[in-house]
Amino acid sequence: MGVANWSFLKACVRVAPGIMVTAFVAIAAMGPQKAHAADPQTVSSYFVYVGGRGINQYRFDPKTGTLTSMGVAAQVRGESWLSTDPQHRYLYTIGAPASAPNQADLRGGSVSSFSIDPRTGALTYLNSVSSKGTAHISLDNTGKILFAANYGSGSVSSFAIKDDGSIGAMTSLDQHTGSSINPARQTRPRPHSVVVSPDNRFVFAPDLGLDKIFIYKIDPAKQTITPNTPAYVEVKPGLGPRHFTFGANGKFAYVLCEMGSSVVTLGYDAAKGIVTPIQTSSILPPNPTPEDQGSEIRRAPSGRYLYTSNQGPEGHSELADGYLTVFQVDGKTGMVKQIQVQPTGGKEVRSFAIDPTGKYLLAGNGVSNTVVEFAIGKDGKLTATKQNINVGSPSSFLFIPAP
Questions:
Q1: Pick from 370, 392, 323: which is nearest to 80 by CA?
Q2: What distance in Å separates the CA atoms of residue 56 and residue 79, rounded to the nearest whole number?
Q3: pLDDT in tens, 125-180
Q4: Are 115 and 127 in contact, with CB atoms under 8 Å apart?
Q5: Is the full-model pTM beyond 0.85?
Q6: Rounded distance between C-alpha atoms, residue 41 and residue 316, angstroms
Q7: What are the C-alpha distances in Å from 49 to residues 146, 159, 179, 293?
Q8: d(C-alpha 379, C-alpha 43), whole Å
Q9: Segments of the chain with pLDDT less than 70
Q10: How far, CA to CA in Å, does 238 sit from each of 217, 296, 317, 379?
């Protein structure tokens, strides 16, 4: 109990003993205070985790954009896609350490949990659970449900998160069925990401194999998901929707299509959890190559700009040069306009991230094994900085406020 509260209680005893009981009840009813998201403008540094061949840790200075290596935080087998809870107490990743005691149960895919030391950012392994060929994970806004897009098995699942941050039982599993028009890549379902709505009521899961965006309702009490009504929205056949993000004002959303190398702008009805396609925009440069394919999409914190990346062809990403495409967003209509194509100087940009202040962008060249940094101008455009670090197969980024 704080000094101020204790002084108040002693005063209550002197004035009226009965007040003391009331005060104790009122203070106790407050319970533990929830952690609030840190204001990016007041955070002096961040821990940055880069998932790839293991999980690498860096310290990031948002004033200068400087990245300082802190070594390997965890040795993880798998794609190392990273996610965290809202209070940044735990880190979740696809794959598992070689030392996981239940390796025999994890052969079909796995998701693992780690606790984060708030002082050093060090990771302590908690547990691993079997998944269904997972490609992407996210947590709900309470940090109590983990969602998984299972590209390998064509399903979307949810897991309960225990009080200690470890992953509990699978609580939901929705198996997608069907196919689309591409005979090489769309013969079966391929869900590629799971994204939670800002109000924590829905989950959106683009399925590359079916050209659909599946929509689920979240039940926080049961830690489950169930299909929305309608259960999905379709995009143009052959586009292959991959990753998804919401606009800043909650009226629009955007899906990055891998095979169609495009962004589909979606009107969003937050009350019903329904998205409606209203615009399709190419992410390609003026002289594209046949190998160009979309991979990641991120919104600037301001909401005025949208960023996408190119990863090259399926199975042959070394054939295409990586680049980032910048779009200006119309705040009233949600529609986007391409304003820049910025090469990354490497091959296969599977993922990138914008730092919480919105001043810098980190892009991972997966085949080239490098992470490159760009400064973000007031006009949203990118300029390369001198930061260029070597990381094995960088595929995911996670910023955590550091002391």
A1: 392
A2: 13
A3: 999 999 989 999 999 999 999 999 999 999 999 999 999 999 999 999 999 999 99
A4: no
A5: yes
A6: 41
A7: 19, 23, 36, 25
A8: 24
A9: 1-37, 314-319
A10: 27, 18, 19, 33
Q: Is 263 exposed, middle or buried (CB count within 10 Å of its CB: 0-12, 13-18, 19+)?
A: buried
Q: What is the pLDDT of residues 275-316, one digit of tens each?
A: 999 999 999 998 887 778 999 999 999 999 999 999 877 666
Q: Find all residues with CB under 8 Å of 99, minimum gap 6, and list them.
A: 125
Query: Cβ of 13: how many Cβ atoms within 10 Å?
Result: 12
Match 């995009």 to its residue by tokens. Answer: 235
CB within 8 A of 100, min separation 6: which ones?
106, 110, 112, 125, 127, 128
Token pair of 176, please?
């997608």
> What burial class does residue 202 get, using C-beta atoms within 10 Å of its C-beta: 0-12 exposed, 13-18 middle, 19+ buried?
buried
Look up tokens 């984060």; give the residue: 116
What is the token pair recorded at 377? Answer: 């101008």
